[in-house]
C-alpha cells in the first residue's frame, strides 16, 4: 500500500510527527509495534520542561523553549479536534535544592544557561526558602531554595498520546497496530517496509521507534546510537490541590495524585523496579514536602528513556537515501509541540531546517583528540 509518508513508532514522538504530517495534507501511515514495545510514552513523568535542558548546547535550549511555546496551540488544536483535555498547565516550574551545595551548583548552571542563550534571553530566578515557602506551601525545612523559570509546566502523557492518535486517525491517517518492521528496502525517496500487518511504501519515511531506531536506522543509511536509561516513578493517592506548579521531580496531576520521580539508572533493558531506588525517591520527596510521607503510594512503575550518548535528541535526514528521517529523544511530552508543529512541516517539505544541524548523529563521528 502506497502512502505519502510512513512513520514507524506509535509513541509520543511518532504520533506527534504523524499528526503533524497529516496536518500538512500528507497521506500518512503510522506503524506501531504493539504492546511488546518498550512503551516509554506510557511511563513518562509528564513535564513540559525547559530549565534543565541545554546546558552547553544552546541549540537544544532554543528547541525546547520553542516546543514549550508551541504547546498551547497544540493542546488547543487537539482539544478542538478530539475533545480530549491534555491537562496542559504552564505556570512556571522550580528545581528544589536540599543543601547549600546544591543551591550553589544550581545557581552556576542557571547563570551559564542564561549566558549561553545570547540574544534569545533566558529568564530565571534563584529563590531562597522563605520566599519559596509562600509559593509552595508545605515545603520542608531541608529545602534551602530553588531555581525558577516561567517557561515550565506539565501535562498528561496518556491524555496527549490518546489525543494525538485520535486526531491523526479522525483526520484520515492510517494507524496500523502490531506492525513491527521485519524487512525494508530503501532508495532515494522510495521506501518499502514489510510488517506482519502487510507491506507499505512511501517516498518519505520517519523512524520514530524509540530504542528500536538503533536497529532500524542502518537500513536507511542513518545512525542512531541510542541506549536505554531506566527511570522509576511513584504515584500517591489523591490529595487536595496543593502544588501550584511542578518541580523537576514532584508534580500534582489534574486528578490530584502526586507523581514522584527522581532516578536515572544504566541497567540496559531491565524494566524491573528497584526498592532501594524507590525508597530514595520517596525520601527526597518527603524532605521536599513532609506531607507527602502521609500519603499512600498506590502505583509505581519503571520505563526506559531513549538516550543518545550525550543525552541530546537526534534528528537527521539520510544522505544516502534522501526522504528517510529519524527522530530520537527522551522528552516526548516536552518536545511534542516542536515535533507536531515545527519538525513535521520540515519533513513534509523534504528538508530539515539548518537550525537542526547540531542534532545530527554526525556529531558522534568526530574523532577524539589524542
Automatic annotation (TrEMBL):
Domain of life: Bacteria
Region forming the signal peptide: none
Record organism: Roseomonas fluvialis
Annotated keywords: Oxidoreductase
Limits of the FAD dependent oxidoreductase domain: 4-344
Listed name of the protein: FAD-dependent oxidoreductase
InterPro entries per UniProt: FAD-dep_OxRdtase, FAD/NAD-bd_sf
Entry-linked Pfam families: DAO
SUPFAM superfamilies xref list: FAD-linked reductases, C-terminal domain, FAD/NAD(P)-binding domain
Phylogenetic placement of the source organism: Bacteria, Pseudomonadati, Pseudomonadota, Alphaproteobacteria, Acetobacterales
